[in-house]
Design a protein that fits this description.
The structure is a homodimer of 367-residue chains. Chain A has 367 residues and is of the alpha/beta class. The first copy, chain A, is 29% helix and 24% strand. Chain A folds into two domains: 112 residues, Lyase, Ornithine Decarboxylase, Chain A, domain 1 (Beta Barrel), CATH 2.40.37.20; 222 residues, Alanine racemase (TIM Barrel, Alpha-Beta Barrel). The first copy, chain A, has nine helices and 17 strands. The longest helix of chain A is centred in the middle third of the chain and has 24 residues. Chain A is elongated. The first copy, chain A, starts with 19 loop residues before the first strand and ends in an 8-residue tail after the last strand. The interface between A and B is large, with 71 and 71 residues.
Chain lengths: 367, 367
């Protein structure tokens, strides 16, 4: 329907049509390796979150590096991953409603499925569906360790729910998860460390209380990119579930420097209507702004003044003032996950040339 | 690949799987009719902007109501529209680079194409491509009427560029456009009116100066949803190019009440972890927040506290405090265009039931 076509491998990055979501493959692979190496050394497993990359290509890279499985947020994301052969998938959210629960049971025929719960009603619905479908799925309890989004309270309420799961036909009680999402982006390492240790302690204590009640708790899963090296040192945490570390983004780079930025949006200048103003072709439909405006990269003197739907309004001086229509400019998004979700493909770059066009098959998989 | 399926017509809206982008068809059709009726009475043409709906279905409805053509922002959007049979398409932006310009020339074989320019270099490139392809395209000059994004300065610089277009082989000089984007969302009608009249006067004066220079100016195009009834009364303006009026959004409803909200995101409650907190399954990947958090609709006592990628964190009291997991809740996005761009389909509702599943074929068409 469209005359767009994919450039061939070997195409220099500056010849890619714009806007294009470009990935520095060396950097992304380096990030995957660095996290896995750290986790191996600290004897904690990695189950990376695919909500960031939404792509079987990257899930396979993470598994090949040593990840024990993949996390995702939605049943439809899990369907994409299962169909691509990912053997074990953890949905880190509550799956509600007959249609989605039935799809989850169907998935259990192609992958080992684990799902998070936080209410006895959901446990009942999952168990009934598992029995009706003759499926077995793993269940973990999402414990609210302080983020105050979803999750049961730590301690007794979680233990009670764990007992209900353990008794529910068709369900396999696997353990607990807790996401310290209120701390992962805290800019102050000392505060982040102190508060994360307190939050994760609640999760570990809850797991211990479950074990005292006679339950087998195999999984104690937590952490985001900003807390991997804090949560990952806590005794009793069995696995980490970060997502953004693979590509990083402008927001997380203000939190930690352990991983390098691999993801940019390549744009071109479309208009130079004034000496201090350049207009580009990448706006709100190519770069998300929920964590702020993107930063121009690889050039000095360019600052994003505003984004409209299909325009970047860039204030230019010095080197950037020389930009002409047709010139390319890279932008570092502040939030990778929501930026990636706008695009259909990654353009994977190595040594300045296109190596692979990588489909984002999980894009838009919101159900 | 996914087990998602489309519900059949007749399905009650509350049985749709979530998150779902739902359109009240009566309201959307009413908005189309209201704008066209107003324009007919004021003897100004309508060329609606498809960047809002990104959908041939809605373009056809607008044309059937009397629109003279359709605007869009990108070559790839134009390809979607042309392939769906839209006979005349105006790209309201500068098209830069050999690849996109060549695609534009190819499009001129299936639709009458008009494109905006603001530089002599772009005119030269378009003319060379038109000659090489044996195509003819219409060209309008984008005049900066005060938004200070793209565009040539009003008056003499625009007249000079118009002369260059008129002389350029393969190009047909059609006229001018100016988008008073800095005024369309001004909440104060009197300010909006006064400032818009000043801005549009620059465009009309520029068109008159072109005519004095012997040029034929057929098109004088301007206006957004917030200024349609101001710009549309200015003598010399030949057509209006609003987009958002078709569905409206929470932001524009604070500007004018002429059109009614037709678009919502249907979500379901997935967790009730605290008496004052409900969590829904629609987050940043289902509802854009570049103009603010969405508003809960059709229920009292529900306020969006925050959105994360796949969660809405809703503060509830009164009626909303009765919400249980599985209950549905509608949200009015503050920015329709960027919300629509997250979804693959509209679910068109009439009298509470699904009438049509409408593909958003222009979604993600950023190049």
């Amino acid at each position: 329907m469209t005359l767009e076509y994919f450039p061939l491998p070997g195409t220099p990055v500056e010849q890619l049509d714009t806007p294009a979501l470009i990935i520095d493959l060396d950097v992304a692979e380096g990030n995957i390796s660095k996290l896995q190496t750290w986790a191996n050394r600290h004897k904690v497993a990695v189950r990376p979150h695919a909500k960031t990359h939404k792509s079987p290509y990257w899930a396979r890279k993470q598994l090949a590096a040593g990840a024990i499985g993949i996390c995702c947020a939605k049943v439809s994301e899990a369907e994409v991953l299962a169909n691509a052969g990912v053997p074990e998938i953890m949905i880190t959210n509550q799956i509600i409603g007959e249609r989605k629960i039935t799809r989850l049971m169907s998935l259990a025929r192609s992958a080992r499925m684990i799902v998070a719960v936080d209410s006895p009603e959901n446990v009942r619905d999952l168990s009934e569906a598992a029995q009706a479908c003759g499926a077995e799925i793993g269940v973990i309890i999402e414990v609210d360790t302080g983020m105050h989004r979803c999750g049961t309270a730590p301690g007794a309420p979680s233990v009670k729910l764990a007992k209900a799961i353990a008794k529910a036909p068709g369900l396999r009680f696997d353990g607990v998860m807790g996401y310290e999402g209120h701390l992962v982006a805290n800019r102050d390492y000392e505060v982040r460390k102190t508060e994360t240790l307190k939050a994760v302690e609640k999760l570990v204590e809850t797991a211990d209380a479950m074990r005292k009640a006679g339950l087998d708790v195999k999984i104690v899963s937590a952490a985001g990119t900003g807390t991997y090296n804090i949560t990952g040192t806590v005794k009793g945490v069995t696995e980490l579930q970060p997502g953004s570390y693979i590509f990083m983004d402008g927001d997380y780079l203000q939190v930690l420097k352990d991983f390098k930025p691999a993801l940019h949006v390549l744009a071109q200048v479309t208009s130079r209507p004034a000496p201090d103003r350049a207009i580009t072709d990448a706006g709100l439909k190519s770069i998300s702004t929920d964590r702020g405006f993107p930063a121009a990269a690889g050039i000095t003197g360019a600052t994003v003044k505003s984004l409209s739907e299909e325009h970047g309004n860039i204030t230019v001086e010095g080197e950037a003032a020389k930009l002409r229509p047709g010139d390319k400019i890279r932008f570092l998004p502040m939030h990778g996950d929501t930026t990636i979700n706008l695009h259909t493909h990654y353009f994977g770059i190595r040594n300045g040339k296109l190596e692979a066009v990588i489909p984002i098959e999980g894009r838009g998989k919101i159900r």
